[in-house]
Amino acid sequence: MSTDAIVLLKEDHKEMRRLFREFEKAQEGPVSRRRTLVDEIVAALTTHTYLENEVMYPEVRKLLPDLEDDILESYEEHHVADVLCAELSAMDASDDHFVAKTTVLIENVEHHIEEEEQEWFPKVREALGRNPLQEIGERMIALRPDAPRSPSDPKAIKSARHATTA
Protein backbone atom coordinates (compact mmCIF):
# COMPACT_ATOMS: atom_id res chain seq x y z
CA MET A 1 0.00 0.00 0.00
CA SER A 2 1.29 3.43 -0.94
CA THR A 3 1.87 6.06 1.70
CA ASP A 4 1.87 8.88 -0.86
CA ALA A 5 -0.71 11.43 0.29
CA ILE A 6 -1.99 12.13 -3.21
CA VAL A 7 -2.37 8.41 -3.98
CA LEU A 8 -4.31 7.96 -0.72
CA LEU A 9 -6.61 10.88 -1.47
CA LYS A 10 -7.22 9.62 -5.01
CA GLU A 11 -8.18 6.22 -3.55
CA ASP A 12 -10.76 8.02 -1.39
CA HIS A 13 -12.01 9.86 -4.47
CA LYS A 14 -12.39 6.58 -6.34
CA GLU A 15 -14.49 5.13 -3.48
CA MET A 16 -16.65 8.25 -3.35
CA ARG A 17 -17.27 8.09 -7.09
CA ARG A 18 -18.32 4.45 -6.70
CA LEU A 19 -20.78 5.41 -3.96
CA PHE A 20 -22.10 8.27 -6.09
CA ARG A 21 -22.78 5.89 -8.99
CA GLU A 22 -24.54 3.50 -6.62
CA PHE A 23 -26.72 6.32 -5.33
CA GLU A 24 -27.60 7.43 -8.85
CA LYS A 25 -28.72 3.86 -9.65
CA ALA A 26 -30.75 3.70 -6.43
CA GLN A 27 -32.66 6.98 -6.80
CA GLU A 28 -35.87 5.26 -7.84
CA GLY A 29 -35.37 2.27 -5.55
CA PRO A 30 -36.29 1.69 -1.93
CA VAL A 31 -35.92 4.59 0.47
CA SER A 32 -33.90 2.36 2.79
CA ARG A 33 -31.27 1.79 0.08
CA ARG A 34 -30.94 5.55 -0.55
CA ARG A 35 -30.56 6.11 3.20
CA THR A 36 -27.85 3.47 3.47
CA LEU A 37 -25.93 4.87 0.52
CA VAL A 38 -26.15 8.46 1.73
CA ASP A 39 -24.93 7.35 5.17
CA GLU A 40 -21.95 5.69 3.47
CA ILE A 41 -21.28 8.79 1.36
CA VAL A 42 -21.49 11.06 4.41
CA ALA A 43 -19.14 8.82 6.40
CA ALA A 44 -16.59 8.67 3.56
CA LEU A 45 -16.73 12.42 2.98
CA THR A 46 -16.50 13.25 6.67
CA THR A 47 -13.37 11.16 7.09
CA HIS A 48 -11.83 12.40 3.86
CA THR A 49 -12.39 16.10 4.52
CA TYR A 50 -11.16 15.68 8.09
CA LEU A 51 -7.86 14.19 6.87
CA GLU A 52 -7.41 16.91 4.28
CA ASN A 53 -8.33 19.69 6.72
CA GLU A 54 -6.14 18.36 9.52
CA VAL A 55 -3.09 17.13 7.61
CA MET A 56 -2.88 17.75 3.87
CA TYR A 57 -4.07 21.32 3.54
CA PRO A 58 -2.19 22.82 6.51
CA GLU A 59 1.03 21.09 5.47
CA VAL A 60 0.77 22.18 1.83
CA ARG A 61 -0.22 25.67 2.92
CA LYS A 62 2.90 25.88 5.07
CA LEU A 63 5.27 24.41 2.46
CA LEU A 64 3.78 25.99 -0.68
CA PRO A 65 2.49 29.50 0.08
CA ASP A 66 1.90 30.11 -3.65
CA LEU A 67 -1.02 27.66 -3.43
CA GLU A 68 -2.78 29.65 -0.69
CA ASP A 69 -5.75 30.60 -2.88
CA ASP A 70 -6.26 26.99 -3.99
CA ILE A 71 -6.22 25.79 -0.40
CA LEU A 72 -8.63 28.45 0.81
CA GLU A 73 -11.04 27.55 -2.00
CA SER A 74 -10.75 23.88 -1.06
CA TYR A 75 -11.56 24.67 2.58
CA GLU A 76 -14.69 26.52 1.43
CA GLU A 77 -15.73 23.65 -0.84
CA HIS A 78 -15.34 21.34 2.14
CA HIS A 79 -17.52 23.67 4.17
CA VAL A 80 -20.33 23.41 1.61
CA ALA A 81 -20.02 19.61 1.64
CA ASP A 82 -20.00 19.58 5.46
CA VAL A 83 -23.23 21.59 5.61
CA LEU A 84 -24.95 19.33 3.09
CA CYS A 85 -23.71 16.20 4.88
CA ALA A 86 -25.04 17.46 8.21
CA GLU A 87 -28.42 18.28 6.65
CA LEU A 88 -28.63 14.90 4.90
CA SER A 89 -27.71 13.04 8.08
CA ALA A 90 -30.62 14.67 9.90
CA MET A 91 -33.06 14.37 6.99
CA ASP A 92 -35.56 11.58 6.45
CA ALA A 93 -34.72 9.71 3.24
CA SER A 94 -38.37 9.93 2.16
CA ASP A 95 -38.26 13.74 2.24
CA ASP A 96 -38.97 15.31 -1.17
CA HIS A 97 -35.64 17.15 -1.02
CA PHE A 98 -33.47 14.17 -0.05
CA VAL A 99 -32.52 13.08 -3.57
CA ALA A 100 -32.12 16.66 -4.79
CA LYS A 101 -29.88 17.60 -1.85
CA THR A 102 -27.78 14.47 -2.36
CA THR A 103 -27.46 15.28 -6.05
CA VAL A 104 -26.21 18.78 -5.20
CA LEU A 105 -23.71 17.26 -2.77
CA ILE A 106 -22.48 14.83 -5.42
CA GLU A 107 -22.14 17.58 -8.04
CA ASN A 108 -20.19 19.79 -5.64
CA VAL A 109 -17.87 17.00 -4.55
CA GLU A 110 -17.27 15.86 -8.14
CA HIS A 111 -16.29 19.44 -9.04
CA HIS A 112 -13.94 19.55 -6.05
CA ILE A 113 -12.37 16.19 -6.95
CA GLU A 114 -11.87 17.27 -10.54
CA GLU A 115 -10.10 20.48 -9.49
CA GLU A 116 -7.89 18.64 -7.02
CA GLU A 117 -6.91 15.85 -9.38
CA GLN A 118 -6.47 17.93 -12.54
CA GLU A 119 -5.08 21.19 -11.16
CA TRP A 120 -4.02 21.08 -7.53
CA PHE A 121 -2.45 17.64 -7.09
CA PRO A 122 -0.07 18.03 -10.07
CA LYS A 123 1.20 21.34 -8.67
CA VAL A 124 1.69 19.82 -5.22
CA ARG A 125 3.43 16.72 -6.58
CA GLU A 126 5.81 18.79 -8.71
CA ALA A 127 6.66 21.19 -5.90
CA LEU A 128 6.99 18.72 -3.02
CA GLY A 129 8.20 15.48 -4.52
CA ARG A 130 8.04 11.95 -3.20
CA ASN A 131 9.41 12.06 0.36
CA PRO A 132 7.30 14.92 1.74
CA LEU A 133 4.16 13.40 0.17
CA GLN A 134 4.96 10.05 1.79
CA GLU A 135 5.45 11.73 5.17
CA ILE A 136 2.11 13.55 4.82
CA GLY A 137 0.48 10.28 3.76
CA GLU A 138 1.89 8.46 6.78
CA ARG A 139 0.37 11.09 9.06
CA MET A 140 -2.99 10.70 7.29
CA ILE A 141 -2.83 6.90 7.66
CA ALA A 142 -2.05 7.24 11.37
CA LEU A 143 -4.98 9.65 11.87
CA ARG A 144 -7.56 7.71 9.81
CA PRO A 145 -8.59 5.10 12.44
CA ASP A 146 -9.68 7.86 14.84
CA ALA A 147 -11.07 10.19 12.16
CA PRO A 148 -14.76 11.09 12.46
CA ARG A 149 -17.32 9.36 10.25
CA SER A 150 -20.27 11.53 11.17
CA PRO A 151 -20.66 15.28 10.68
CA SER A 152 -22.01 15.50 14.23
CA ASP A 153 -18.81 14.04 15.72
CA PRO A 154 -17.15 16.78 17.80
CA LYS A 155 -13.85 16.22 15.96
CA ALA A 156 -15.56 16.81 12.60
CA ILE A 157 -17.27 19.95 13.90
CA LYS A 158 -14.03 21.31 15.34
CA SER A 159 -12.13 20.50 12.13
CA ALA A 160 -14.78 22.16 9.96
CA ARG A 161 -14.91 25.25 12.17
CA HIS A 162 -11.11 25.52 12.18
CA ALA A 163 -10.94 25.07 8.40
CA THR A 164 -13.24 28.01 7.73
CA THR A 165 -11.14 30.28 9.92
CA ALA A 166 -7.75 28.99 8.77
From TrEMBL:
<feature type="region of interest" description="Disordered">
    <location>
        <begin position="142"/>
        <end position="166"/>
    </location>
</feature>
<dbReference type="InterPro" id="IPR012312">
    <property type="entry name" value="Hemerythrin-like"/>
</dbReference>
<protein>
    <submittedName>
        <fullName>Hemerythrin domain-containing protein</fullName>
    </submittedName>
</protein>
<feature type="domain" description="Hemerythrin-like">
    <location>
        <begin position="5"/>
        <end position="124"/>
    </location>
</feature>
<dbReference type="Pfam" id="PF01814">
    <property type="entry name" value="Hemerythrin"/>
</dbReference>
